[in-house]
């Protein structure tokens, strides 16, 4: 889930809204574990979703998102005893299991680790997975909570592995419950402490008028290629960063290529690259040919999900970016901005595209953006200036020399 914090609206205080990753529908899991005396020993309520990335037999990657957990069982969840700490064990779907274990110290208890297992033998969820079997990711968490306090975290927490992204929100948990009474004293997670309201801020930079936004890390470079009957017809590789402005506050989102799908099409005069992910319904790059000898990025059409069930959409078919001769590719390693509208812009990094005339699946020679060539361009300029200066110096010396010798002749 990606959330945006909006600037204060008159009379409404801070308004927050979120971009939901995938299904907006979600429901809470709840576990009230009791001991042999039927007194509550562990209480938990939370929501979670998983995004799994796996390799298929034809060497491509697929992404599945598990947000509707279906029927859930809690077999194996225990209050804990002298040997073992308390444990939450959840089973759902076909072969998913999720485990949290807790430990206790003198005056604190800890959520020690969270592990998640999935079975890629399930062909309906993981069709043509390369590696079949049960895979487990285990993440140490080490969240320390004072005894007899209940941990609350409404913000989204993310645990990220290479292949699995786990997200949790609306978390309420207390282990080692004393005397069977769940505490009313809440221990808030750091993210909830900083946001005045419940909504979380993740993956976004939240600039405010008084603070400068923290610099965002560079997005990972994704490689995209589209094929038609004649083989690869469009190539693109780029790191993409989306900048959405809502109520004068900009939110910056990096596109993770691992969890982004792409499609597209190629025609003689236009070519399309369409990306989508759990938060991006679609992001279209439409290329066109102009004057029969150059191509350019003509149109961007985007639609993103918002938490309140609505969708943010912007299109502009009158752009002119990434302009290069047909039969070549366009390259720009420096950060460049595609300004789609006043409220939506795309920052690109390490960009290379060729939407037409791709030969043998490879990029043709690149035409570089001016930002990249500035330095290379400065070197000849500097050399030229130095040479010019030298010529002037030589010329002046020559004139002085000539005058001296003339004076010499006259004096003779
Ligand atoms: C948990 O279950 C116990 C026993 O059934 C009940 O007394 C208690 O109110 C429940 N607690 C919550 C928070 O649901
Ligand atoms: C969980 O327990 C229920 C009944 O308590 C049982 O029917 C089910 O088979 C168990 N599931 C697993 C995965 O052990
Ligand atoms: C918690 O779970 C992990 C993985 O399941 C395990 O390695 C670790 O020993 C467990 N810790 C405790 C205290 O049970
Ligand atoms: C994406 O996948 C590649 C290969 O599986 C992996 O090396 C890389 O760390 C992943 N990146 C992210 C951001 O998950
Ligand atoms: C639990 O009960 C014991 C004895 O009845 C009492 O001393 C203790 O303070 C209680 N703890 C809490 C957290 O209510
Ligand atoms: C494949 O190339 C041929 C010759 O260049 C062209 O006539 C045909 O339309 C192309 N097919 C597709 C699907 O682009
Ligand atoms: C995002 O857009 C806003 C408004 O156009 C701009 O002020 C800000 O510098 C942009 N941030 C990034 C990281 O591009
Ligand atoms: C992209 O869209 C396709 C078709 O609409 C969908 O099957 C796929 O799950 C989407 N990909 C992601 C990463 O959400
Ligand atoms: C943007 O894409 C949507 C969905 O594909 C389409 O309905 C709409 O006409 C497009 N807008 C433009 C300006 O192309
Ligand atoms: C969702 O939030 C956006 C931004 O605040 C707003 O423009 C839109 O009208 C809202 N949609 C619904 C259905 O509430
Ligand atoms: C497209 O952009 C050009 C210059 O950027 C402008 O002159 C023209 O009016 C625009 N056309 C439309 C339909 O917006």
Automatic annotation (TrEMBL):
Keyword Membrane: yes
Keyword Ribonucleoprotein tagged: no
Lysosome-associated membrane glycoprotein 2-like transmembrane domain: residues covered: 379-410
Domain called Lysosome-associated membrane glycoprotein 2-like luminal: residue spans: 219-358
Subcellular location per the Swiss-Prot or TrEMBL entry: Cell membrane; Cytoplasmic vesicle, Autophagosome membrane; Endosome membrane; Lysosome membrane
Signal peptide per UniProt: none
Membrane association type: Single-pass type I membrane protein
Transmembrane segment boundaries: 377-400
Keyword terms: Autophagy, Cell membrane, Cytoplasmic vesicle, Disulfide bond, Endosome, Glycoprotein, Lysosome, Membrane, Signal, Transmembrane, Transmembrane helix
Disulfide bonds: 153-189, 332-369
PANTHER family linked to this entry: LYSOSOME-ASSOCIATED MEMBRANE GLYCOPROTEIN, LYSOSOME-ASSOCIATED MEMBRANE GLYCOPROTEIN 2
Homology family: Belongs to the LAMP family.
Protein name: Lysosome-associated membrane glycoprotein 2
Encoding gene (name): LAMP2
